[in-house]
Amino acid sequence: MKRIYAREDLCLGCRLCEIHCLVAHSKSRRIISAMTREKGQITPRCKVEESGQVTFALQCRHCEHARCLEACMTGAITRDPATGVVLHNADKCVGCWMCLMSCPVGAIQRGREGHVASKCDLCQGEAAPVCVANCPNEALLFEDREERKK
Amino acid sequence: MRKWLVEPDFILTRDPDRCINCQVCVRQCANDVHVHDEEADLVQSDSEKCVGCHRCAALCPTQAISIEKASLEFRPNGNWTADRIRAVYKQAEGGGILLSGMGNDQTLPVLWDHMVLNASQVTNPSIDPLREPMELVTYLGRKPDRLELNRDANGKVSLATELAPQLRLETPIMFSAMSYGSISYNASFSLARAAQAAGTFANTGEGGLHKDFRPYAKNLIVQVASGRFGVDPDYLNVAAAVEIKIGQGAKPGIGGHLPAEKVDAQVSATRMIPERTDALSPAPHHDIYSIEDLRQLIYGIKEATQYTKPVCVKISAVHNVAAIASGAVRAGADIVAIDGFRGGTGAAPTVIRDNVGIPIELALAAVDARLRDEGIRHQASIVAAGSFRSSADVIKAIALGADAVYIGTAALVAMGCHLCQKCYTGKCNWGIATQDPMLTKRLNADVATRRLSNLLRGWSLEIKEMLGGMGINAIESLRGNREHLRGIALSDRDLNILGIKAAGE
Asked: How far apart are CA B140 and CA B176, in angstroms?
């Protein structure tokens, strides 16, 4: 399946990915409203990790053997059988944080939207995730590397 | 009274209705213009540090930032302009030589803008380049005095004359000498890759050849300059051609200085100098004080490369450029590159950049005419350099007598340069003229290669369109064909030197 890959050698650490992610998951879907009126109510699903000169955007890896999915007791985390994308349904989430605990890369966060977890959905419905589409240095790639390996 | 009399060049304003406090500008500005005041949770800007590179404005997701020329006006004075007053303030403060990057920014007339091209009407047909083949292929190098042919018993004809080595260019545009050190690894790498993709050449400048760029060496011209950085037999033999740099249009008569802070491990290995030492290029080559000395170096290089590569001599356009070019050709140069006074640089004393040298238009016309008069024009190709801003400038240069052109500034602009002229600070926010790892990674070599390739493709298509309009189907037929140029608002003297008629004649 197509996944997001970060090129840390090219990441500027500008955090535009976080901003565009937040806007894409806001109610208004308009940048100024999302960043002002809805501020504090939406969680960006991707997060720029920084250590010295190294920066890169991290988001859910949509693991083949997703530990979060196995750990989720309410069935809020499911896998789309058609696409393989690991999805999170906030309506079913009870905020037990078992997914956070089990995620090996730390890509799931406690959401600001309520007592629920928050994770990347690869921008369902968009041609490419907005973080990838808006990265000014093309440091995020959305591609199927398993297909390439075959 | 403030101690520092230099006022900001730009005033940066932030539209509070649009600013979302995302701090992208804070993270992008290497000059620390933007700061986030945590207590007030507000981004604030200090215009005094702004160099006008537009990096923050380009990345601002809400277009909240506008940058304007500072409106703090002096009493109008045609003689003491604001720039001159500010320069005195700066100099009175520091007492040093004022530096600048990029090319001459003064408002002297650009003669390309005073020349217009011809087109076919009624009596001679124009050609549609979309339907008919259009040839831009250019060969650079010494051409034979005459061709001798052999005819065998069956009447088959073959060439008896041995041809001198040539560079084959798919389009008559090459990337100018820009050294690794003055520009970043990614910028150098992109130039080399784009040159290879487009079937043309990039020039390493005097910074040596990074080992990673060796696979692209067939599309690289290596430079031997007064500092001799990175020169060894392998360097000469791996490249497509060798260029002896005598002068640079932005700073004729003076050498170069790459400050020690830019000489990191990679640059040091490539230049073959100790890490963190200044890389000083002397003003002259200390072994070249005459045309005869130049001949020795040209033939030294030819011997070292077994006469398999053309040797180019690059000179800056100065008053007696025609005589110097003639000397270079007689000394054995296969290509003469002439760099006009608008050519760029990573760092030059502003006073030299803005006042020394002559325009490439006049220099090119003078050199082409001189070499023709002396009957040696075929012995060397002419490459013109020094600020080609569009395909129109390129085609006009070819009509004036150039075989090809070098583009430097245009290539940097294609990669993102905004001509803020602060290359010498090493804080290029676009990741081009810097060695700071936090800044160099801002230039994605894949993106830059694509943009450079697009520029060459776009210009080449435009050149074909213009050629077609003139009813010419090969760039060879336009070369030195000054009948296709006319001058507008030029003096008789200018027209005479350019060798063109006035519009209407």
From this structure: 15
